[in-house]
Amino acid sequence: MTSTSYCSQSDRRRESRFIANTPATLLWDGVSSSVTILNISVYGALLGGAHVPPVGARVTLIGDHLEICGTVIWQGDDRCGLLLSRAVDPLAVIDEPLVRMTEPPITLRRVAPGRYA
Fold first, then answer.
1. Rounded Cα distance, 74 and 26, in Å
2. What are the CA-CA distances from residue 117 to residues 18, 101, 106, 109, 111 (Å)?
3. How many Cβ atoms sit within 10 Å of the Cβ of residue 42?
4. Fewest CB atoms within 10 A around its CB: which of 25, 40, 51, 90?
5. Where does the chain have alpha helices with state H?
6. Residue 62 to residues 14, 28, 70, 87, 107: CA-CA distances in angstroms?
7. CB–CB of 35/62 below 8 Å?
8. What pTM was computed for the model?
9. How far is residue 71's CA from residue 96's CA, in Å, rounded to a whole number?
10. Is the Cβ–Cβ distance between 79 and 35 less than 8 Å?
């Protein structure tokens, strides 16, 4: 009896994927759908949502730190994969804007019970 075993192949993507879990809106053919960017890389994104477009659909993905066109390259029941039309910085999509302090922080000292200066 011949036995065949299969080993999973490692993910051979060139670019790293970053977990995002970021809300966004997906537009295509006059349809607007709320989605979650589950993960994102330089040229692709995994989206989750109740209503996702079919394979081959040209879409626009709009989020807080992103607005980009793409093409759906695969579709499942509640998720789809996008090939983005240009390179994006994944960290800029998932990170909150940094608040840069131009002045040193204020330090308060207790000078009396319930009083600070």
1. 15
2. 44, 21, 10, 6, 7
3. 16
4. 51
5. 90-94
6. 25, 11, 11, 15, 40
7. no
8. 0.70
9. 26
10. no
